Amino acid sequence: MENILNILGEEIYENRVALGLTQDQFGAKYHVTGPAIFKFEKGYVKPSLELWRRMAKDFEIPEKRAVLMWIKSRLPEEFQDLIQIGDEVVICPESGKRKAEKKKDYSQYTNRDDMRKAIQKDNNLPKELKHFLKMEEVWDIYKPSGREINILRDRFTGLGRGSVEAFREALRVVRMFTGKK
């Protein structure tokens, strides 16, 4: 089974592309070959902790987070969820492609209409969650907060595609744990 999260590889890929460097050019910065960078990006091989820390420093990833990312990448898939980094890795369910992007923090919105517009423009949200949040009854009856939307996105969409009913139940579960009625 393919590793769901290739945290390090995605970071390496995104940063290399942002710099406009080939794998060979990028590898030269760290005294490794282009094929090694290819293997890191694909998740076939993980960089050593020493190499990863140097890269992460250049990527402006805090050291604590970088070490946790490295540890998480080494765990078998069934244990990766045990380490919560608050990472910004987004799995795009429609394409199956992974890309590292900054997630929108909906808890920062004070205006509900602005938040709803931002949700519908957010291409990183799974379409099932967007469909759920597009429904008038959700906003009229449940009045989800930005924090709750963040939790639905971060904790529940990783479990699968979901449905309107599943997200409705997930919102109820979130409220049982957070104490909101």
> How many domains comprise the coordinates?
2
Shape: elongated
CATH superfamily placement of the largest domain: lambda repressor-like DNA-binding domains
Q: In the CATH hierarchy, what is the architecture of the largest domain at level 2? A: Orthogonal Bundle
Structural class: mainly alpha
Helix percent reads 55-70%
Structure notes:
This protein is mostly helical and 181 residues long. The protein has two domains: 7-100, lambda repressor-like DNA-binding domains (434 Repressor (Amino-terminal Domain)); 106-178. Helices cover 59% and strands 3% of the residues. The protein is built from eleven helices and two strands; from the N terminus they run ααααααββααααα. The protein has a two-stranded antiparallel ribbon. Strand 1 (89-91) and strand 2 form a beta hairpin. Helix 2 packs across helix 3 (34-42). The longest helix is centred in the last third of the chain and has 15 residues, at 164-178. The termini are far apart.
Question: Which helices and strands, and how do they pair?
Answer:
Layout lengths: L6 H13 L3 H7 L4 H9 L6 H10 L4 H12 L2 H4 L8 E3 L6 E3 L11 H10 L5 H8 L1 H7 L3 H11 L7 H15 L3
Antiparallel strand pairs: 1-2
Top keywords for this entry?
3% strand, 59% helix, 2 domains, two-stranded antiparallel ribbon, mainly alpha
